[in-house]
């Protein structure tokens, strides 16, 4: 592969990663605002429709204040990043377990993974012939537009 092609592919990969990160950050900010509003609504309903500063402060950043207290009254960028990353990955892990856990016991087994794969395969194998063909893939979303399968998601080849 020529050097210019490699550089172009690296740039495309980097641009995709940056775009995905920007989307995730916007989505995370929106979820944070929704969570804040839910906490404020709850605090107001718990206290008859009005809240004091102390109630407001408690509803706003209780977890952040706990992190500061747990770290001797000061929180470094590294400590905060570690806590945020851990919380993010714990949420992701809970979603994955919930999606795959067929017994509802909060654990993930090889049988759970295989069972989930069989369900997804069966959904994609629209003609039930035991094979997934490119035309059976959705035109968009998670399984669509995968160039490695040779399609543009619309039944045509990628140019």
From TrEMBL:
Keyword Signal among UniProt keywords: yes
Gene3D superfamilies noted in UniProt: EF-hand
InterPro entries noted in UniProt: EF-hand-dom_pair, EF_Hand_1_Ca_BS, EF_hand_dom
Extent of the signal sequence: 1-24
Record's keyword terms, sorted: Signal
Domain of life: Bacteria
Region (Disordered): 131-159
Residue intervals of the EF-hand domain: 118-137
Annotated protein name in UniProt: EF-hand domain-containing protein
Natural source organism: Mesorhizobium cantuariense
Lineage start: Bacteria, Pseudomonadati, Pseudomonadota, Alphaproteobacteria, Hyphomicrobiales
């Amino acid at each position: 592969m020529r050097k210019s092609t490699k550089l172009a592919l690296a740039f495309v990969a980097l641009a995709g990663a940056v775009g995905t990160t920007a989307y995730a950050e916007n989505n995370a900010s929106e979820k944070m605002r929704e969570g804040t509003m839910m906490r404020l609504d709850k605090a107001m309903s718990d206290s008859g429709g009005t809240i004091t500063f102390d109630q407001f402060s408690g509803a706003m950043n209780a977890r952040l204040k706990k992190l500061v207290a747990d770290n001797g009254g000061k929180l470094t960028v590294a400590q905060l990043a570690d806590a945020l990353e851990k919380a993010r990955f714990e949420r992701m892990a809970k979603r994955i377990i919930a999606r795959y856990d067929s017994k509802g016991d909060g654990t993930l087994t090889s049988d759970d993974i295989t069972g989930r794969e069989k369900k997804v395969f069966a959904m994609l194998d629209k003609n039930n012939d035991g094979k997934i063909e490119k035309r059976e893939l959705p035109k968009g979303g998670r399984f669509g537009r995968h160039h490695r399968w040779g399609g543009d998601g619309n039944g045509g080849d990628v140019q």
